[in-house]
Specification:
The protein has 462 residues and is an alpha+beta fold. The protein has helices at 9-16, 26-33, 51-58, 116-120, 145-151, 161-164, 167-179, 185-194, 203-216, 221-230, 233-236, 238-241, 257-267, 272-280, 285-288, 301-315, 320-331, 341-351, 353-368, 377-392, 405-412, 418-433, 440-461; strands at residues 20-24, 43-47, 62-68, 73-78, 88-91, 94-98, 106-110, 131-133, 139-140, 153-154, 182-183, 290-292, 295-297.
């Protein structure tokens, strides 16, 4: 774990000659929550020095970027001689005023003469409203955030906190799951009353908090249960909310689809693509459920689930790469483990070397989350076979063929066209079944045979 160094003593001393400097933000919070939490980037608050003067002072020690000048925030990277390996946020105390629905518009006023307590009071939760005076070591804690940490509570700083910025509701859920805290009674009530406002927040901001929940919480399921309880889930992930109460009779599952899905996330590795796939792998079960005498079937839920996952991730503005990877994992999560060597090679081809092992991790999490103490020995055996197959390095894709598109076009006078791809895919199917056929001379004969058959078939159809 990398240790995030703070500002050097020389820089702090120069600031203290003209004003006061405080460490603020998550690093202060986490210090009091647990000594084993990952070290966070250091954020600082400086009082008593005007912004222009502060910028001039800091420029003696490093690069100053006023990207947040309108908010009174400086991005500062110290020179190497001052341990300059990180970029720090250095801000003046400020007040914020919401001027539009859902915190879409707000006004920020920064003032170097404001007290640090005034700045802390505008923050979202009491556990984030603490500062450490770097001159005296004193903890400035006007809203008793340290006491809430001891009580393991998430408490808003003022009754209008969620109305000022509705994203704070999702942040509160994320913090509760991440730190295994509870929402304080009035905070929970305010969240329930304001849940509808989450629809005014941009998809990008919602995605960011979901990612933190998925990656930073040991048990993200706690966050999703809380979202469902307070009414957030149906607003931002209605596809997942529809899984609540959908039973899975037949003896394979101990939980309904919703509980099984979020437990699958818990059991999955802390990888964003795998955990997103875990979250949505059974998302289409409500629409594919068909009751039977012995319970129910969910035929085709993996294919439909992939389409559901794609729709949700597109709505939340995930990258095309993440969307493609997640939907492929969802689409293929019902793979068969007891396959032939040919089947192993085909699985590697379908998933690619970068996703074939995440697919196995998804299956293991899926089985563990069934709540029936199922075995994944078959998955472990398949993984060993995949690793052995990869070591042998047989062809898995078009790039591995000894024959390329130019060979087909030059030898058989085939113009650039879909036909070239058809020939290559035919050859790839041959070598997936029999890797020893991957010799250029042999493949060119097979290509000639394929092209003759195509010509004959076309002539007969005419």
């Amino acid at each position: 774990m990398e240790k995030i160094a703070g500002l050097s003593e020389k820089i702090i001393k120069a600031i203290l000659e003209k004003g006061k400097i405080y460490e603020v933000g998550g690093a202060v919070r986490d210090k009091y929550i647990s000594p084993i939490l990952p070290d966070k980037d250091k954020d600082y608050l400086i009082t008593g020095i005007p912004l222009d003067e502060l910028s001039s002072l800091l420029s003696r020690f490093g690069k100053v970027d006023l990207v947040g000048k309108s908010f009174g925030v400086i991005k500062f990277r110290p020179f190497k001689e001052f341990d300059g390996e990180h970029v720090f946020d250095i801000a003046l105390p400020r007040k914020e005023y919401s001027t539009g629905s859902g915190h879409k518009d707000f006004r920020v006023e920064y003032d170097h003469n404001l007290r640090v307590e005034d700045d802390l009071s505008r923050r979202d939760f009491t556990i984030n409203a603490m500062a450490e005076n770097l001159s005296t070591g004193e903890l400035v804690d006007p809203l008793k955030g340290r006491g809430d940490i001891k009580r393991r509570l998430i408490r808003i700083t003022n009754p209008n906190s969620f109305r000022d910025d509705p994203l704070r509701m999702l942040r509160g859920v994320q913090f509760a799951a991440r730190f295994e805290f509870e929402l304080e009674e009035n905070t929970l009530k305010s969240l329930q009353e304001n849940a509808d406002l989450i629809t005014t927040i941009s998809a990008e901001r919602i995605q960011e908090e979901l990612n933190k929940l998925l990656l930073k919480a040991k048990y993200p399921s706690a966050g999703f249960r809380l979202m469902q309880k307070v009414g957030l889930l149906e607003k931002i992930l209605p596809e997942l909310a529809s899984c609540v109460g959908v039973s899975q009779p037949g003896g394979y599952h101990a939980y309904d689809v919703f509980e099984h899905s979020i437990l699958t996330v818990d059991f999955a590795p802390r990888d964003l693509v795998i955990r997103l796939a875990a979250l949505f792998h059974d998302a289409s079960k409500p629409e594919t459920k068909a009751p039977t005498e012995s319970g129910a079937t969910f035929y085709g839920h993996e294919k439909r689930g992939a389409r559901v996952a794609r729709k949700v991730l597109q709505r939340l503005r995930y990258s095309n790469q993440i969307i493609d990877q997640v939907t492929l994992l969802v689409d293929k999560h019902m793979f068969t483990t007891g396959v032939t060597d040919k089947g192993v090679r085909r699985l590697i081809r379908k998933m690619g070397e970068e996703l074939v092992f995440p697919l196995l991790d998804l299956r293991r999490a899926d089985v563990a989350a069934q709540g029936k103490e199922g075995s994944t020995k078959d998955v472990d055996e398949l993984e060993e076979r995949i690793r052995l197959e990869l070591e042998r390095k047989p062809p898995f894709g078009l790039k591995d063929l000894e024959v390329k598109g130019n060979d087909i076009m030059d030898t058989f006078k085939v113009p650039p066209s879909p036909l070239v791809g058809q020939v290559l895919n035919y050859l790839l199917e041959l070598v997936l079944d029999n890797p020893e056929l991957n010799k250029k001379e042999r493949l060119m004969k097979e290509a000639e045979f394929f092209l003759k058959n195509i010509s004959t078939t076309s002539a007969n159809q005419k």
